[in-house]
UniProtKB/TrEMBL annotation:
Entry GO terms, CC: mitochondrial inner membrane
Main location, first listed in the record: mitochondrion
Protein name: Solute carrier family 25 member 3
Pfam families: Mito_carr
InterPro entries, per the entry: MCP_dom_sf, MCP_transmembrane, SLC25A3/Pic2/Mir1-like
SUPFAM superfamilies xref list: Mitochondrial carrier
Any single biological process term in GO: mitochondrial phosphate ion transmembrane transport
Amino acid sequence: EYSCEYGSLKFYALCGVGGVLSCGLTHTAVVPLDLVKCRMQVDPQKYKSIFNGFSVTVKEDGVRGLAKGWAPTFIGYSMQGLCKFGFYEVFKILYGNMLGEENAYMWRTSLYLAASASAEFFADIALAPMEAAKVRIQTQPGYANTLRQAVPKMFAEEGIWAFYKGVAPLWMR
């Protein structure tokens, strides 16, 4: 009757896969727009508007340049989606069991909020390293063109901290 039992490992895995598909694929699909947005934030004199940003990027890097940062975007947001969707269900059940059935029902909005915030805490930790690499690739000309180039360079320059400097702003949003 059901694809899996509620609260089973398969249930959590399916929720996680749903997160990978809904976050990883959608964020990767809008990489060109994100690339131009990031460049507009870093260099507003050069990238004056969305349309101008697309035009400058295509002139300088070709159409393929619009895909810069696709790999860390896909990996990072897939990991975020996996954690966000999967851990939300874990925390919802965990907190619900701690409250008891009646209190979980009465306080369900607060329960869902707490489960969501808890899941997002871990999801942002999973996202941060790839988001840091993506931003370097997209906004620092000549720094790196691929994830394989960016990660070792970032680690050599700043150590592990390079990948987690942005986690607090992620939590704040």
